């Protein structure tokens, strides 16, 4: 059971929307707290699981910049980080937009984490599973309905 409202990913907007998250977000890695916040934002885009972005002040782990970047047609250029927490290092497990596009200026400096590389991630009282595949960073929760991108054959539609 989940305390999250039912949502259909096929009804999320395109271009995507940015909205505040009312639930507490908790992430753990290596037996230690990575982040704990009630000030997260999420991006909602058609056929994607929501992507959660956390304010840097609420991140307890060390995030170390790494080389490379990627371009999102909606948000701009992302840079990547290794996440060091407890006794673990998760390579390229987080990303942020330092100078996002005008529609996503609220994301500036906020950090998103790949759930697949964390030991656990929570939205409220609901444990997250990673978005299918290894490209997208959405967080899947049991309240989501519809076909979520990321599985083989879904990346370019």
Keywords:
157 residues, mainly beta, Metal Binding Protein, Guanine Nucleotide Exchange Factor, Chain A
Characterise this structure.
- The chain is an all-beta fold and 157 residues long.
- It has strands spanning 7-8, 17-20, 25-29, 32-37, 41-44, 51-54, 62-72, 76-85, 88-96, 111-113, 120-123, 126-127, 129-130, 139-140, 144-145.
- The strands form four sheets. A seven-stranded antiparallel sheet has the order 2-5-6-10-9-8-7, with no helix packed on it. A four-stranded antiparallel sheet has the order 4-3-11-12, with no helix packed on it.
- The radius of gyration is 15 Å and the shape is globular.
- The relative contact order is 0.23.
- The model has no long low-confidence stretch (mean pLDDT 94).
List the helices and strands and how they pair.
Elements: E1 7-8, E2 17-20, E3 25-29, E4 32-37, E5 41-44, E6 51-54, E7 62-72, E8 76-85, E9 88-96, E10 111-113, E11 120-123, E12 126-127, E13 129-130, E14 139-140, E15 144-145
Parallel strand pairs: 1-15
Antiparallel strand pairs: 2-5, 3-4, 3-11, 5-6, 6-10, 7-8, 8-9, 9-10, 11-12, 13-14
């Amino acid at each position: 059971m989940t305390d999250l409202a039912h949502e259909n990913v096929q009804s999320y907007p395109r271009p995507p929307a940015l909205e505040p998250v009312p639930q507490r977000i908790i992430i753990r890695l290596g037996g230690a707290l990575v982040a704990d916040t009630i000030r997260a934002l999420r991006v909602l885009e058609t056929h994607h699981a929501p992507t959660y972005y956390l304010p840097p002040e609420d991140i307890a782990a060390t995030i170390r910049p790494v080389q490379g970047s990627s371009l999102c047609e909606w948000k701009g250029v992302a840079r990547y980080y290794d996440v060091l927490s407890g006794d673990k290092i998760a390579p390229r497990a987080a990303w942020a937009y330092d100078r996002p596009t005008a529609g996503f200026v609220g994301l500036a400096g906020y950090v998103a984490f790949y759930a697949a590389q964390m030991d656990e991630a929570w939205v409220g009282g609901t444990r997250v599973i990673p978005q299918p595949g290894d490209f997208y960073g959405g967080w899947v929760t049991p309240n989501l309905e519809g076909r979520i991108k990321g599985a083989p054959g879904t990346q370019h539609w």
